[in-house]
Amino acid sequence: MNVTLRQLRAFLAVHQEGSFTKAAENLHITQSALSSIIKELELNLELGLFDRSTRKLETSEAGRNILPAVIRMLDEMDALTNEVMGLKKLDYGKVRIAVVQQLASAELPRIIALYSKMFPQVEVSLIDCGVENVQEIVNLGEADIGIGPERKLLSSLNKQLIFSHPFHLALPPNHPIAKEANIRWKDLANLELITLRGSFTELIIDNLLRESSEYIISPKYLVNFMSTALSMVANGLGVTICLPYAIESVKQNGLVIIPICDPIIYRNFYLYSCKNREKLPAVQKFIDVFLKNMQFNKV
């Protein structure tokens, strides 16, 4: 059985008008074309849908029996069409973003505010999380996209490079080296260093020669969060390694940053998404707005 929506709409129009002539006018087709469509539908269904006489046209008993189902199907198709159009026009939708905590507080609020002003009907939710959780949250379908630093990529995900930042040293503005143009990694051995546990520091060590990394392996303080490290620096407990995207947090703690060189080590940040999950228009538009307006790559 190969019944089309066109055939069902034609059947409903004839039933409602009680006339092929009036129904054809409403459908903007000729009466002969409408008659052919109805005949095709009757052949497909193997049912006579109308009782024809010289005086009037009436819907048959079989036609009246299928009428509720036809109306329901057409209503559902109209609802589907409206849903698709609404999604395409961004009349509504949802965007869920998993972002590492420091990034979530640095740049994302401004981008979300801009996007929400452009598309106020779209709901945006932000999942601020640990670095190691970004990919997994996207993989589980709890977020549409993830933004975070480079980590071993899950096989189910794609990644897109969005910016790279070189490591800097955060320190009080009255520190003896605060006005230096830069500092070498090996010279950190002369400072009281505060570093982060886990991948943040481990990936730095992987990029350094042994003599330059020894002091980083055994810092004075080891903490879990950059906010903690910056607060400790602000209270005179040492200096810490950070990335320029955290500049607002650095400033809020009354600190300054200087580049670390010899070598210059960059940390790459990526946008993560699922390979086999189609992005809704609202999600793709958010990505476009984010990439166009982010300022991470201008730091």
From TrEMBL:
CDD domains linked: PBP2_LTTR_like_4
Pfam families membership: HTH_1, LysR_substrate
Transmembrane regions listed in the UniProt entry: none
Gene3D superfamilies on file: 3.40.190.290, Winged helix-like DNA-binding domain superfamily/Winged helix DNA-binding domain
Record-given protein name: DNA-binding transcriptional regulator, LysR family
Family membership: Belongs to the LysR transcriptional regulatory family.
UniProt-listed InterPro entries: HTH-type_LysR_regulators (IPR050950), LysR_HTH_N (IPR000847), LysR_subst-bd (IPR005119), WH-like_DNA-bd_sf (IPR036388), WH_DNA-bd_sf (IPR036390)
SUPFAM superfamilies documented for this protein: Periplasmic binding protein-like II (SSF53850), Winged helix' DNA-binding domain (SSF46785)
